[in-house]
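Handover notes (outgoing to incoming on-call)

Open items:
1. RNA helicase: sequence verified, structure written out, both below. Nothing else pending on this one.
2. Nothing else urgent.
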Amino acid sequence: MKSETETANEIEELSEKISDLKTQDVKHNNLQETQADVKIIRIHDDEPVLSVTTFEELNLHPDVQKGVYEMGFTRPSKIQAKALPLLLKSPPQNMIGQSQSGTGKTAAFVLTMLSRIDLNLKAPQALCLAPSRELARQIMVEARKMGKYTPVTTAEAIRDSSSNNRDRNTTFKEAQLIVGTPGTVLDLIKRHIIEKKNIKIFVLDEADNMLNQQGLGDQSIKVKNLMPRDCQIVLFSATYEDSVREFAGRFAPHANEFRLKIEEMSVKNIKQFYMDCTDEEHKLKVLSELYSILTIHQSIIFVERRDSADRIAKRMTDLGHKVIDLHGGLSTTERDEVMDGFRKGSAKVLISTNVIARGIDVMQVNLVINFDIPVKRNEDNKIVADPDTYLHRIGRTGRFGRKGIAINLVCDNYSWKNLRSIQEYFERDITQIKLDDWDHVETFLKNEIKALDAA
Ligand SMILES: Nc1ncnc2c1ncn2[C@@H]1O[C@H](COP(=O)(O)OP(=O)(O)OP(=O)(O)O)[C@@H](O)[C@H]1O
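RNA helicase structure tokens:
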């Protein structure tokens, strides 16, 4: 059985091959920034899109509404305003939703899950799959907050999530809302620990990742095939590659669909920069320098491989910086401790592989550094730039309209070529910060961060 870490592991392994690649010379060109507005297009169903402006208009159960208000949500976000009236329709309709990172997709599907549950029936009725244990746990926190004033019963279906089997079996038997990772959920359904027959809504968060055949696709498809026929299928993500979108259409037939144009996918409130380093060692020095001069709230440094995460964490610690690192090689307990510590703010700098590239929401993160530019294997099995992962990574900052900074470190033609492909894909400007004068770098970045704080 594949675990939730395996997708991240596969990506980590890809980079083992990177050093063997010969790359061609490319020019350092910045692209014109597009000014395209965010538009959400509904392409299925002829009825006009009804958009609400308040949570009251959605006729949520008063206890659910109370939970939502207590979370400080005064009115629905754009995607919630447009998607929720469709998601809550009776009879239920499938949905393929896309909106930028940090725009509130979680609440859109969690509110639908809570609204579909018959609270008198103590059995699984709403199931959500996410690509990592960290994201599954986060979604569950959000669901428990929203359902706080209801008697909804919940369970996390992630590895080692419960103390003993007896408790675990009772919990899953009675849990009305379950969030988990695909491998664990599939295993629990097959062993009849999760009873599937009353499940009314099946959600895939980060759906493109979950349907990607190379990743978690197999398990998610198997789980979906076990769902009752009339189960509402809801897919959400900030990105959908064309090949995955086509498959998503078959996975969730007759779905209402919200799409973004490529140039609208990148969140405008994240300022994107790059720094041209001489080699890997220089990248480490730049990193250390950056953390010496900057007072950041919290930040995430993304790397491709586990051993790089450990190596950079060690070097940064030796240089006197307080950092923690997270990757698929840690035990589940260690992963939970690292993530919980970061959420509480006890650690300011988190070094991670792609395992937390998607979905993770820590509001205080105002800086993301791509120590390595993200890559993937294309259909020809070649290693190429991975714009979708790039977008998800930088989307760990700039959450829900806040501002953020993303800095990419390039050190050779290979990394530059990959960064340039990403620029071209999104048609967004990634501006160079020159490294010849650190006083200038310091003033420049301090001003940028001051601007973020003032905004
Ligand atoms: N209506 C709202 N009012 C205020 N805050 C909200 C609202 N909806 C969501 N949020 C907050 O916005 C943040 C981002 O939401 P969420 O994590 O659901 O984004 P997302 O679209 O799923 O992002 P990603 O694509 O990265 O997974 C969260 O902290 C969430 O609590």
